[in-house]
Specification:
This protein is α/β, with parallel strands linked by helices. It is 40% helix and 16% strand. The chain has helices at 3-8, 13-23, 66-76, 88-95, 111-124, 156-164, 178-187, 207-218, 233-241, 254-283; strands at residues 24-26, 40-42, 45-47, 51-53, 81-83, 101-105, 128-132, 145-146, 149-150, 170-175, 191-194, 224-226, 246-249, 296-298. The strands form four sheets. Strands 4-13-12-11-10-7-6-5 form an eight-stranded parallel β-sheet. Strand 6, helix 5 and strand 7 form a beta-alpha-beta unit. Helix 6 (156-164) crosses helix 7. Bound molecules: flavin mononucleotide. Residues 54-58, 84-85, 104, 132, 173, 195, 197-198, 227-230, 249-252 line the site of flavin mononucleotide.
Length: 302
Amino acid sequence: MSDMEKYNKPWDSNLITREYFDSLLVEMRHIDSVIPSTKLELFGETFDTPIMMAALSHLDNVCENGMVEMAKGAHAANAVNWAGMGDEVEIAAITATGARTINIIKPYADNDYIFRRIEHAERCGVMALGMDVDHSFQGNGKYDVVLGEKMKPKSLIELKEFVKSTKLPFIIKGVLSEQDAYKALEAGAKGIVVSHHHGIMNYTVPPLYILPKIAKVINHQIPIFVDCGIVSGMDVFKALALGADAVSAGRVIMEPLRKSGSEGVKDQIIKMTEELAGVMARTCFQDLNHIEPSVICHRNGW
Ligand SMILES: Cc1cc2nc3c(=O)[nH]c(=O)nc-3n(C[C@H](O)[C@H](O)[C@H](O)COP(=O)(O)O)c2cc1C
């Protein structure tokens, strides 16, 4: 990030997040190190990488059948796929690729519609589902409207009902405070995504800044996922070290998707996974479960 960018947009949560990633430094630990495993165990299934697709949507302007191509790429890399807003036909097409998919349903104003979408996602065989609770308001304090669809913030009671309505793990996406982490646990969520939804509000804390505090609240009871601004295996490593169980990558896969479709997505996941393995080898962590925060140092000023 250039000084000019920082100067011109000091409020930009994406720039603040990038700056925070780059403020984190990593010790090296070579003695006794071995070739590391990047295998992820999640909800009883095993994947080759903790790098998952982000819950994206509407990728047809990136490449034809963008969401399906992304799913195929994730499947080919044996990575978890996520899917955001999309109609039932699209979710069915995504899951038909065989990609193990987590479907994030929007906080629609109409709860009956949410229950129907939960049932539909279950029928499609998703591995988990959830809601991006951070997409309920517009910046002017009114309820959000996304592509003509009305949204409404959800109460703890409503979230408990969504969780109760499904046998699948229900994940709350858009947790960026200890307060919401406590509430997610109380709601019965089976996972959270620490995220500011690529800068939905200005001046948000970077996910990795708040992550250690959230991890303390969650205390290994449910998996913690992180997204926003992850572009390299080193970024992934820092997130895992500070308390994430896995991460999602969104915008970084869009250019490879545009250029080479599912192959591009697969290659990008593999490239970042190899970078992660490289850092794990040089920090003496044999697998994901051993990575811990003492390896991270903070530059002055943070
Ligand atoms: C084109 C696009 C569409 C997205 N659609 C959704 C969505 O439907 N549901 C959702 O929860 N998040 C959605 N997101 C947010 C991502 O899941 C993710 O939180 C965000 O992009 C941060 O990750 P990144 O910096 O790796 O892109 C979308 C992001 C992008 C770029």
